[in-house]
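If your schedule permits, I should be very grateful for your opinion on a structural question. I would ask you to consider whether the tokens describe a fold that such a sequence might reasonably adopt. Thank you for your consideration; the sequence and its tokens are set out here.
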Amino acid sequence: MDIIKNWSTIRTHFNKSFRSNLHVSIASVDAENNPTVTPIGTFFLNGDQTGFYFEKYPTKLPKNINSNNNICVLGVNSNKWFWLKSLFKVKFDKYPALKLYGELGHRRKATEIEISRLKRRMKTTNSLKGNKYLWGDMEYVREICFTKAEKVNIGKMTSYL
């Protein structure tokens, strides 16, 4: 999958994946070459094969960057109607899952635009106490630069995508 040519499709997929899962999974490798997966609920893609996540709770990703800054982000569209329709038709009309490969970049103070994107995404839970606890004081983001995209194949159901 060409990451530049298909970037718009990739962004749409990750938005749908977030709506059905409320997170993506980011895989990294620690200093002892042990793999680990971190769920991230504040992941965003930009218009240019880059992205970021708010770094408040993750502890392993920031440590792992010291020995290996390569990551893989998995986004799965878990919408039940998407899956039921696909199972009935014995084919997916769109990718059920995509992986993005890239490198973690610098941790920096979030811009107003990035904070605005987070607030817009979390708007439906604004009146709940947990919203302020989880997302009320997000200050820092970790940049990500993506170099490769890969569709997840599920046999005949994704063969023509």
Remarks:
- The first helix runs from residue 7 to 21.
- The chain has a mean pLDDT of 91.
- Residues 112 and 118 are 10 Å apart (CA to CA).
